[in-house]
Amino acid sequence: MPTQDPQPLEPSWLTIGRELQAIAQIGLAFSQDPYDRLRYERIRELAASLLAQRSGLEDGAMLDYFRRETGYATPKVDVRAATFLEGKVLLVREISDGAWTLPGGWADVNQSAAECVAREVAEESGYLVRAVKLAAVYDYRKRNRPLHLDSIYKMFFICELLGGSASASIETSEAAFFARDALPSLSVGRTTAQQIERMFEHAERPDLPADFD
């Protein structure tokens, strides 16, 4: 059975605020009626105010963040690579928080998910890999912390090591392989210990179906 990260539920203010923002964004993307557009603008302002009050950010900054999001509101996509060598998994150390994670990041346009994850590994670690299996698609809000304003799907791939060598990048300071029982301090917003353990299980049992929430 797939492991379930023991994460608490999101607070209602975050769930409600995010959905209100999505309703406003979609309404503004498709509505041509000037009165409806005013109503959707007001909904976006209320969503920004609610989230700003609870998160400690300024109302104006939150509203500016929302206004940059246009079109139909959909979850963002994060890709992560689990690459193994002699029973150890490749991790990179993030400059932003000094903690470690599976290499990865936001998916880019004009690239498939497999291409994105291979690129992220090369950029962040110096290693060349090829995605060989989609192991999991997880919902960030159910498995990761800290809280995040966006709705996020996290795609985890088992990758085959093709070559390269460890190197730093503008986002990462180190790359190294770790045993499953000797993991370093993790950047849990990006990768949790439970997720890494599940990737070890997928690597050991290629017949396992992909996990999903």
Describe the sheet with the most strands: 8 strands, mixed
Assign the structural class, choosing from mainly alpha, mainly beta, alpha/beta, alpha+beta, or little secondary structure: alpha+beta
In terms of DSSP E residues, the strand content is 25-35%
The CATH C-level class name of the largest domain: Alpha Beta
Principal-axes shape call: elongated
| Mean pLDDT over the full residue set | 93
Domain module count? 2
Radius of gyration: 19 Å
Order of helices and strands: HHHEEEEHEHEEHE
> Helix coverage percent of residues?
25-40%
The CATH superfamily name of the largest domain is Nucleoside Triphosphate Pyrophosphohydrolase
CATH topology of the largest domain: Nucleoside Triphosphate Pyrophosphohydrolase
Distance between the termini: 13 Å
